């Protein structure tokens, strides 16, 4: 079963991505506040000249700086907010997308489908985990196919032994035991029929 993993929806796990986007936004805002405070402390003993609305103003640098930041705060919030949302959306998409894919893949494995491989995009995170899950899928598929093969051989051998013993009146007990083996092999085959593997898709 061939899969294409192209994802055009950048909000795959909205709750997780929203949490990270909000955290990034708070980080940027706090960073701006801390930078302003540090700059104000370092420039506490300096004066700044500002030409605004045809008037020349002279004042202490921290006060002038604070006034300019407050007067333009809405521009900062909108610009920084949009920038943070866009950047963090792309960054979170690199690990939110693979997490979503891992969840869906594990659901398919739990449903018995082992006929697929996880494929991630070049810049996605979690390639090591995807490779480990793919190796697990291959191992399980190989083991299940081997068990299917051995079960078939057990059923054939049991059938041949049962036919050979049925000709003899003295071997009824042995025939009953062979029938039990055959029934057990049939139950194993029924359990294995729940799985779809690579070689038996």
Describe the SSE topology:
Layout: H1 14-42, E1 47-52, E2 55-60, H2 61-71, H3 73-110, H4 127-166, H5 172-192
Helix pairs in contact: 1-2, 1-3, 4-5
Radius of gyration: 34 Å
Low-confidence stretches: 1-5
Let me know the largest β-sheet. 2 strands, antiparallel
Give helix % range: 55-70%
Instruction: Tell me, rounded to a whole number, the average pLDDT.
Output: 76
How do the SSEs run, as a string of H and E?
HEEHHHH
Computed structural class: mainly alpha
Number of helices: 5
**Termini Cα gap:** 8 Å
Short synopsis of the structure:
This protein has 201 residues and is mainly α. 69% of the residues lie in helices and 6% in strands.
List keywords for this structure.
201 residues; mainly alpha; two-stranded antiparallel ribbon; 2 strands
